[in-house]
Structure to design on (283 residues):
């Protein structure tokens, strides 16, 4: 008998993956957690029925959410990661020797524990001495911070359930307050291909723009995410992601990446018209 996992991308679109083994099925205090072993995509983390990452393409998401801001400000030393209990963003940040302190705020302890056990390819750096894990609500955590971080990465789930508070105007305002004057905010920004995702992306972008003078959107191709086209938000008080790119510095770090490079960096901010139209309110 064949076993398939199916995610509903919309009410009329489904995405299916052939599964070898269902490794974990657990209801935590906050959400349903499943870890699957697939034929084609390796291990898969699923939260509340939605694919968070697959072993085969997780590097795209995690490289793009970290290397883009790191390449803009080589002086980044203190980082806050909100969400991201799988450890992928932390793994990429730990590759930069100049990063001195990483606060990881994850509301669900079981996500971290299970990823450490079953997903070592993302969670392997969570034990780094620079990483400090806080099991609490990211919205409440960032309220208590002011002028503390060089970079905040919001590696959240979709804007409902445990991740809902990480898309509010209050949250983005507190992130702005928690960043220093050269600070950068990067967040996963959904997609514009399906209407329900497009609405969430536009709303989040408008809220971020109300606090940050520089607020742009960039993209990556992530095959297992809805539509394959996924967006990220880049916001800063002073630094422009393209004009202030430090390509030579990034190359000098000698980091081997599988998706990100200095050319992708500038190119990913060149958005197609279907995204530009949503951002401009033309759709």
């Amino acid at each position: 008998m064949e076993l398939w996992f199916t995610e509903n991308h919309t009410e009329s679109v489904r995405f299916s993956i052939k599964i070898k083994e269902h490794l974990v099925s657990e209801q935590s205090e906050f959400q349903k957690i499943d870890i699957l072993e697939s034929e084609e995509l390796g291990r898969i983390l699923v939260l509340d029925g939605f694919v968070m990452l697959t072993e085969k393409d997780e590097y795209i998401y995690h490289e793009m959410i970290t290397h883009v801001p790191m390449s803009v400000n080589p002086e980044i030393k203190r980082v806050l990661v909100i969400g991201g209990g799988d450890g992928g963003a932390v793994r990429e940040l730990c590759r930069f020797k100049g990063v001195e302190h990483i606060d990881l705020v994850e509301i669900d302890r079981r996500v971290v524990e299970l990823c450490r056990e079953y997903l070592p390819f993302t969670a392997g750096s969570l034990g780094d001495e620079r990483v400090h894990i806080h099991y609490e609500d990211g919205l409440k955590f960032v309220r208590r911070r002011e002028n503390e971080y060089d970079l905040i990465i919001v590696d959240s789930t979709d804007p409902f359930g445990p991740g809902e508070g990480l898309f509010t105007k209050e949250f983005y305002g507190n992130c702005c307050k928690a960043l220093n004057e050269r600070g950068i905010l990067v967040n996963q920004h959904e997609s514009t291909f399906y209407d329900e995702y497009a609405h969430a992306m536009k709303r989040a972008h408008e809220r971020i723009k109300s606090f940050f003078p520089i607020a742009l959107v960039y993209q990556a191709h992530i095959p297992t995410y809805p539509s394959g086209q996924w967006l990220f938000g880049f916001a800063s008080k002073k630094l422009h992601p393209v004009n202030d790119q430090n390509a030579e510095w990034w190359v000098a770090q000698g980091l081997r990446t599988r998706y990100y490079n200095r050319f992708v960096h500038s190119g990913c901010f060149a958005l197609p018209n279907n995204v530009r139209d949503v951002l401009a309110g033309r759709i």
